[in-house]
Every structure is written in C-alpha cells, then in structure tokens.
Write a structure and sequence with these properties.
Strand content: under 5%
Radius of gyration: 27 Å
Number of domains: 2
Shape: rod-shaped
Length: about 210
C-alpha cells in the first residue's frame, strides 16, 4: 500500500497514470452518489405506502384525494398514477396516452448517467493498461540502455509502474461496475413497476 501511495508522487515514474485513474474514479463515484440518491432514495423510498394508500382511495372512488396524495410526492410512479386518474374521463385511450406521456419523461430520468459510470469504469481499466504498457517500455529501455549497475533498480521501477497502475485501474473499475449493476437493477425494477401498476389502474378505471 505504501509503495502504491508513493507512486502518486511526481518524482515517481508513471505518476500521471495514477492521478488520471484516481480522477476518473472520483468522477464515476460522483455520478454514482447522485444516481443512488435519485434512484434509491428519491424514486424508491416510500413506494409501498404510497401505492397502498393510492389504491385504497381509487378503489373507494375518492379520486380527488388520490390525486392530492399523488401530487404531494415526487415519486415517478406517483406522477404516472396521477396522470391516469386525472385523465379518467377520457376513457382507456385517454388514460393510456396520458400515462405514456409521463412515463416517457420519467423513465429516462431513472436510467440517466448510469452509462457514464460504466464508461468511467472502462476508462479506469484502459488507463491501468496504458500504465502497464508504459511500465514495460520503461523496463525494456532500462535493459537496453542503462548501465549494468543501474539496471536492477530501473527494472524494479518499471515493474512497479506496470503492476501499480494495473492494480489501481482494477480497484477503480470493479466497484464502479458493481454500482452500475445495482443501479441498473433498481432502475429497471422501478420502470417495470410503473408499467405494471399503471396498467392495473387503467384496467380498474376502464
């Protein structure tokens, strides 16, 4: 670990790759935090209670109250439900058209920026590979051009560059890819839930 930390020192060869990987990781982490807040907390928390309360009011034909609680929350599914109930006088076609319009607005918001986190993971891996190649070039240059007395240290430095950048690239990419998987799983579940619950409400009001 201490050797890796030393690799960030500008006096060490290959330090540029270490900082680049770290910057890319921080960008990916920033996107991850923003998406976690939006998908897990803002869009997912409280869904079960809202759907239970909303469903009871719709079943009791208390549509104004159902719209009131739907408009009081920023849950994407609440916006879809509200659009359906508000367009109930337009029949099945009107409710479907209204829900589709809201769905096409809300669904992309759930998947936004998740692809960028995946890109940052790939860039981290590639930067680690670039650092590995740089370290190998450094090593081969040492073998070819350094005096015999300086070769052992130069070889060790070259190998350290190659291994250090590879390790840091993987340490950056793996967590980001795990985060992408978790965010994709939750966003897809929310989108499927919007479709399913929306269709059920339309069927019940048709």
């Amino acid at each position: 670990m201490s050797k890796m930390l030393q690799s960030f020192n500008p006096e060490s060869d290959g330090w540029q790759f270490m900082w680049l990987i770290l910057v890319v990781f921080m960008i990916g982490l920033g996107f991850s935090i923003e998406r976690f807040i939006y998908i897990i907390l803002k869009s997912g928390k409280g869904r079960a209670k809202f759907l239970a309360d909303f469903g009871k009011l719709v079943s009791a034909k208390q549509y104004d109250q159902a719209l009131s609680i739907a408009n009081a929350t920023n849950l994407p599914i609440a916006k879809v439900m509200a659009s359906i109930v508000a367009a109930r006088d337009g029949g099945r076609e009107g409710m479907t058209a209204s829900s589709d319009a809201v769905f096409l607005t809300e669904a992309p918001r759930l998947t936004r920026y998740v692809g960028m986190i995946s890109v940052m993971a790939s860039v981290s891996t590639l930067l680690g590979l670039m650092g590995t190649i740089y370290g190998l070039i450094f090593t081969f240059d040492a073998v070819a051009n350094k005096p015999a007395a300086e070769r052992p240290k130069a070889l060790a430095d070259g190998i350290a560059i190659a291994m250090g950048t590879t390790l840091l690239g993987l340490l950056s990419a793996v967590p980001l890819l795990v985060i992408v998987g978790i965010l994709n799983m939750n966003s897809e579940r929310l989108i499927q839930e919007m479709e399913e619950k929306g269709l059920k409400i339309i069927n019940s009001l048709s």
